[in-house]
Amino acid sequence: MTTTREDGGRLVPKDSWSLLGSRYLSDHRIFQIRHDLYRFEPAGVEREFVVIESPDWVNVVPLTEDGQVVLIRQYRHGIRAVSLEIPGGIIDPNESPQAAALRELSEETGYAAERVRMLGRVRPNPAVQNNYQYMFLAEGCRRRSAPHPDPFEQIEVVVRPADEIPELVRREEICHSLAINALAYAGLVKAFS
Fold it and tell me: How far apart are CA 127 and CA 152, in angstroms?
């Protein structure tokens, strides 16, 4: 059974995919790789898919009372380069997204917020990942202590005026898509033409 959208496009119902089997290929510190085998009906064609199972994570847009954004600069192994971005990290087991946001803010920057609110959540890449990214705005941020990041993180705290953020994105100094997504949710970045 295939349904049709109002725009004439076809929708594929969920029951067109039959899960035939699933097994884990590898287990890493921050994710597991799972192999799924599906049959697509009505053609009866089988196809393998790889899924990255990861805990949910948070990103925090920290704003000071005087309109500064608290950023971090750290080495990212995927690009083998230093990246300018916002604080964030994995939500620990039995930890709320908001508690994780405040913890990551403190650990990575030494800042604390007077007010925090969730901006939203998205699925980073549902084609291959199963987790959520929660985005928070932390307002009234003040430095309370020295940062205390994880042992394998070397983080430099960088503070920039909020009105400079779009240019940092435009110049690709901020290039982490999930950081840009959270900055957009906070209203600091708009679509570029």
Answer: 29
Range with lowest mean pLDDT among 28-32, 105-109, 139-143, 159-163: 28-32
For residues 143 and 60, give the distance between their C-alpha atoms in angstroms, rounded to a whole number: 15
User: Strand, coil or helix: what is 170?
Assistant: helix
User: What pLDDT sits at residue 10?
Assistant: 60
Side-chain half-sphere CA neighbours of 4 within 13 A: 3
Q: Identify the helix (H) or strand (E) that includes residue 105.
A: helix 97-109
CATH homologous superfamily of 57-185: Nucleoside Triphosphate Pyrophosphohydrolase (3.90.79.10)
Q: Are 1 and 11 in contact (CB under 8 A)?
A: no
Strands 133-143 and 57-64, by their bridges, are parallel
**pLDDT score of 67:** 95
The pair of structure tokens assigned to 108 is: 């990575």
Q: Considering the chain, what is the average pLDDT of its residues?
A: 91
Tokens 């035939």 found at: 20
